[in-house]
TrEMBL record:
Domain DeoR-like transcriptional repressor C-terminal sensor: 4-162
Top-level taxon: Bacteria
Protein name in the entry: DeoR family transcriptional regulator
InterPro entries cross-referenced by the UniProt entry: Carb_Metab_HTH_regulators, DeoR-like_C, NagB/RpiA_transferase-like
Organism: Pseudomonas prosekii
Transmembrane segments: none
Length: 181
């Protein structure tokens, strides 16, 4: 998806700076996440957890990255694996960071995505992470999608671009999160 590539690249650069050696990081599905991985130094040793094919392929290019993939049923449309069994890797992993993407962020309706098959994983990683970071370019704000998975208050950081509406800059700050642009 070529939309907002420059914004996504900048978001990726800003978000990648948070990752420290030895961290365990969940990388969500989506078109912004691969840009985060682009900016992780090759020499950095870290563990990555992911559930999407495009993210897995990106992570495989990082020589010092230990990769954990959440397996299950593969959904071609959004390129994610969905675990349908009772227990999985995410029940036992503890994350330093959850880098979560959204298709919509609304003050009234919260943080949303297009697909219900992503909701459980997003909610689980938010519960298992010490630090929760939302990746969302300005086009996602004041937008509501089908599947709700979180509130703005659930995130410690929101990484976006300079075109984010002022009402949302204020809402993020009011929620206690730090806006990184």
């Amino acid at each position: 998806n070529p939309r907002h590539v420059e914004e996504k690249r900048r978001i990726g650069k800003l978000a990648a700076r948070f990752i420290q050696p030895g961290d365990t990081v969940f990388f969500d599905c989506g078109t912004t996440t691969p840009f985060v991985i682009d900016f992780i130094p090759d020499e950095l040793e870290f563990t990555a957890v992911c559930n999407s094919l495009n993210v897995l392929l990106k992570l495989s290019q990082k020589p010092n990255c230990h990769i954990v993939i959440c397996g299950g049923t593969f959904h071609r449309k959004n390129q994610v694996f969905e675990n349908t069994s009772e227990s999985g890797i995410l029940d036992h992993v503890r994350l330093t960071w959850a880098f979560v993407s959204a298709a919509g962020v609304s003050q009234d309706f919260g943080v949303t995505c297009f697909n219900f098959n992503e909701v459980e994983v997003k909610q689980k990683v938010l519960r298992q992470a010490q630090q929760r970071l939302l990746l969302a370019d300005h086009s996602k704000f004041d937008t509501v999608r089908t599947a709700h998975f979180a509130a703005l208050e659930d995130f410690h950081y929101v990484v976006s671009d300079k075109k984010i509406p002022k009402a949302y800059r204020d809402a993020i700050t009011a929620s206690g999160a730090q806006l990184i642009i």
